[in-house]
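#structure-requests
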Amino acid sequence: MKNLFVFITLIIGIASCKKGPKTTDVDPGPVVQAEVFSPEDAQKLMETKCYLCHNPSAPEKGSRIGPPMVAIKAHYLAAHKNKDAFIKSIMQFVNSPTEENTLMRGAVRRFGVMPAQQFPETEVKKIAKYMFDYQIEEPDWFKEHWLARHNDSLYNKGKRLAPIKTKPTPKELGMQYALGTKKVLGQNLMGTIQNKGVEEAFVFCNERAYPLTDSMSTHFNARIRRVSDKPRNPNNRANAIELEHIDSFKGKVASGDSVEPILREENGKVYFYYPIVTNTMCLNCHGTPNKDILPKVYRNLLELYPKDMAVGYGPDEVRGIWSIVFDATKNTD
């Protein structure tokens, strides 16, 4: 079992794996496309798919043909405090809109039951997730309307109807990009190990890490890199600024301080830095050779990366950092 997971953190730990000599030409297999949630895309989906009937700009009386989206959110939040239950309930109603399934009987009496429509399940899920996590636009009249009818108002309970900003901050975006890329790399590596065996992890790491990271850079429209002061691949060597941040993160992690991303803005760009910290699994590839790293594993690593510096780590040490650059105005208020 241990060998099955030996290389799970090979990429996630940091040093990208390409440019070294190949040991085999075996195809590492199909790329797993991990789902990456974009609040901006989900908001656009909601406005495109839902606002024809649930537009917050429509007047309370007259031409309105359905309740505003914030009213739907409020009723479902009142019934479901758990996010998964909230999303599931929204999806169930959209899939089968009936009077028996509704949580909004007053709206059904006024507007009738929503006509059954064929919406892709993935789109409905994204919209429901966005509704739960983010503040959505509400008509001027809605707060007073809701407060007049609900003594235990969701407004008075705090962060329910407006739990988060309508759009992510640069810090939230940077974390989204780092963790989203980490997820894709990890899922594809795990798929290679499960389908082709542990040895193929070297091939995947050597050949697929850079293309996958580049594809995530394109997806997020950001420059995403993983860099280190002790790189496995020389192309992942940190520059002077990145080295300073690595040292700073090392001090915080070693002292047990809480670690927050480092951000700076320059010439309309956000520069985001966040540490990659080792755990015991990482030591299978980044620990002490012939102690944490099995002799066969270490020999293969040296064949692929003869200039490898990425060894000698213990648990809870900064192995490197995410270094991400994106537009300072992107998706932020």
